[in-house]
Amino acid sequence: MTEVLRLRYRRSERKQTEISGYDNLEKSEERMFGRFGELIEFLYRKGNSEEDSAHATVVVVDESRKRDGNTLDGLPYEDKKALLRFFFGHLNMIVVSYEDLNHPDIVKDINRISRCVEMMSVTRSGRVATWTGAGKCCAQSSVHCDSVMPISPQPLNETPKEQANLDCQGSAVIDVVQSMTSMLRTTLGQMELTFERRQHFYRLITQEIDFLRILSNSSRSHLSRLCHAVGQWSFPAHELSNDDLVYCVFLMLKFSLDYYVSECSSDIPQGLHIPSSNELLALIFTVRDTYNNGNPFHNFRHAADVLQACFYYLVRLKCLPSFEQLAADPNGEEMNVFTYTFDNKEPTILVPKADQGDSSRGVSSSGAEQKLEDDLKTLSHLKPLQSFSLLLAALGHDVGHPGVTNAFLTKYNTPTSMLYNDRSVLESFHACVFVNRILLVAWPDLLTVVVEEESKYTVRNLIVSSILATDMAEHFDYVRQLTCYKSFHNKKLCQGSNHLDYVKLTTSLLIKCADISNVTRPLRVSSQWALVLAREFDEIAHMESVLSASLQHVSIPTIYPKIPYQVEDVLRVRPDLRNGQIFFIDTFAESLFGSVSDAWPQLTYTKDIIYSNKSFWINFS
């Protein structure tokens, strides 16, 4: 049922009894807020949940506040409405004023739309059909195809006759339920909300909200533990909450950004804004809300995990400095940090090591490998801003992911697949949304900063090319390109125009490796990722059955118990993981990480762990 959130200022003289239609709103839960910022904090906190929003959120806004436009509470009603719809559209927002509730027709429409939202969202297949446009479209025009009616879901508390009479194809419903095409429309269209207004709203949010307070656990001891978790190759993503992952992402981005500022202070473009810690946290919270947390695999946890893999690579490759909390052993037991007692003197940020030495190398190299590494010392390193841009790309590489594949989107002729001509559909969508919906609002001046002077290659270019590189359809082409690294001992190949190609290939390969790094994590962690990926593939198969009409009005459980901790328990839940893991390692991972280890000896541990994991799966019965 509908959740109703009320913004009511104390100075308002209007009493609830004067709102004739309020009691007629169909609602299961309601909350009252005295400040607009308090309401926004509540909405951001919802991101710690690991479920999709399966109901409408009705926000009733008090219009009595003096309007100055320079504070959140001073925003006029239309601006408050626009802010809520843009930043929290994933919560199926219906925003109305108290005055609206005095009109019976409006109240009736709110209830109708809320029931439609519930009908379209009550099952996982319904939500995905709505997001992708793979269900029944109300019109053939691609302009309207995001008004999707899923085939199988049946609304709660509705009889079939009532369902048949429920009109859910109007524009009001389309505007409430977010889809991939509606995200693109609101991202790129400025008629409803200009970029300048979006940026103004975002500035007010970062000025008035303390994002550290939003975290469910911000004690010093807990944040210190997260610093050590980030330093583990066996990064325990499934033992961390979404709020924990937000702080982990913050730690890595801040560490990389601080390194850029300290190392390149004389080269920082004039006018480039360097965000505060609160602004950086705000960016991460905003990104988190753009992921669909109900996806078993392609969710914010996966984004944080890919970023951590990239971060770990960059430290071992000496693109970023080592830090005190870094674990040298890739096979180390990561959960030891959760049993250790931390005092209040422990740092809550990553601390660079005073003596870098060779501590970040982590693996021994032969004499030939060491000579090659020394020869490439200045060439195989990304510049600090290039490294930071790669981490940003990792954070946003799957934003808005609907939980299905490119093949699924193409097979059902979804609007997004038609828009991108069936090529790198998801990757193009992710890049567009991350750059134009998030970064262009939160940090617009960063996008135009040049990261490769001779070619004028910008941060935006690097982020987009890195995200596009995660398309598995391009996988074998990148494996072939790895042979180029054998020639990079000739420094001339890395100079001039060739150096840009080298940077693009380096960032593309690193994010590709990070994107499929789950098979290179120690077995306990790797098996957890195998389980959630299998769940997502199960859901895709179920949706295909629904959409082909071979299965209707049947749902599968999509709220799962917590991922088991030990490998043995994972396999009790899903004993058939073996074949999928062996196939993926044989087909994709073994050749990629083998070649990567040849190119970068510091990453040989990934190949070693793959061999160990593969041996386990082969011998498991």
TrEMBL record:
Entry cofactors: a divalent metal cation
PROSITE patterns (UniProt xref): PDEASE_I_1 (PS00126), PDEASE_I_2 (PS51845)
Entry-linked InterPro entries: HD/PDEase_dom (IPR003607), PDEase_catalytic_dom (IPR002073), PDEase_catalytic_dom_sf (IPR036971), PDEase_CS (IPR023174)
Domain of life: Eukaryota
Free-text cofactor note: Binds 2 divalent metal cations per subunit. Site 1 may preferentially bind zinc ions, while site 2 has a preference for magnesium and/or manganese ions.
Main EC class the enzyme belongs to: hydrolase
Record EC number: 3.1.4.-
TM regions (residue ranges): none
One GO-annotated biological process of the protein: signal transduction
Entry keyword annotation includes Hydrolase: yes
A Pfam entry, by short name: PDEase_I
Residue stretches making up the PDEase domain: 207-621
SMART domains (alphabetical): HDc (SM00471)
Keywords: Hydrolase, Metal-binding
Record PANTHER family: CYCLIC NUCLEOTIDE PHOSPHODIESTERASE
Protein family per UniProt: Belongs to the cyclic nucleotide phosphodiesterase family.
This protein's name: Phosphodiesterase
Organism: Pichia sorbitophila (strain ATCC MYA-4447 / BCRC 22081 / CBS 7064 / NBRC 10061 / NRRL Y-12695) (Hybrid yeast)
